[in-house]
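To assess whether the prediction recovers the assembly geometry, we first specified each molecular entity separately, as shown.
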Amino acid sequence: MKVEGVPLEILRTRLSEKWSGSAPDVLTLPVAEMDFELPQEIRDLLGAMVQNSDTGYLGKIDHLGRNFAAFASDRWNWKVDTEQFLLCSDVGMGMIEMSRTIVQPGDKVLVNSPVYLNMFNWAKELKCEVVDAPMRKDGMRYSLDLAAIEAGYKAGVKIHFLCNPQNPTGTVHTRAELEAIADLAEQYGVYVLSDEIHGPIVFAEEPFIPFLSISDNARNVGVCVTAASKAWNLAGLKCAFIITQSERMSELAKMMPRSVRFRASLFGAHAAAKAFECGEWLDGMMETLDRNRKFLQVQLEEKLPLAKYQIPSCTYLAWIDISAYNLGETPTVKLLEDGKVALTPGHLFGPECTQFVRLNFATSEEIIAEGIDRMVAAINK
Ligand SMILES: Cc1ncc(COP(=O)(O)O)c(C=O)c1O
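The predicted structure of the complete assembly is given in tokenized form:
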């Protein structure tokens, strides 16, 4: 199935954050939303619900857990227990509510920067201290630094917010790394909250490994928080899942307020259930992203040869080092002012990232090329 970028003039009529959040003359490439059309089955389902004025509260939806379990089994050979599958409104809320069953204000939470910026905000919301075990960097290749993680665990960290796979570096963690984390967490009494929202968006060369599929230790210390919202672009519909796979973690999950479940939306839950049946659309979308990640590399080599970019192994976010162009303390400010192109500033993802930008390539080749042209225009101004 072919999944192609929607033309710019139509995108500009969208009401979502990506397309309504900046001036009309700005080309907008931050915010992790996709510029594709939804699978027809999801559009039909939502359209029919609206036509039927079926806009009330979320009721029973057993097939959502079953559909996710079937998808996880087919794609990742991970056997999910649908009895330990809880709903919540979004991944952020799932991470926070689950954390609240574990930490008190002042406790320590570990992250691996550069990492999804809201992991810092979640820790702040929990009034917890962030301990950073930065990713190890070899050129533009990143990997988890197990020694730094162990040092953090030893220093009394209660929770590890693991971004599996990783935004913004596009790293897919290996089985050996995840096994080591599970063993260390068991040894030091740390809980691992694995944010797997990008799990379905992993390219073929490095398979995605769900944390709970790793080992008994992983299941004893870990929780998976995930959603269909990133891979099928359903973020506005509000539905995510908190998954455990051991008695110990299930008991902890039961300590969350019952209201957590009811904060998922009717549309979100039904669209997510349908999404996990839309594997063909996902495969088509991945083919487009695969072309785009390579197209971006060619564009950068031709037009911005000093930019450093490693083709990502997952998701649709390019992590680009533009330090060689000396665009000041916050390069995205100059790029926006002088090039009318909006990108996510690197410093939001961690210290020492001020000269990086994150570019969303879940769009058309025309928009990617135009984005790079605008960066060039800003640099030359
Ligand atoms: C790693 C990661 N987690 C969570 C989210 C946001 O998920 P939600 O809107 O369900 O909170 C994103 C969005 O880009 C993300 O990249």
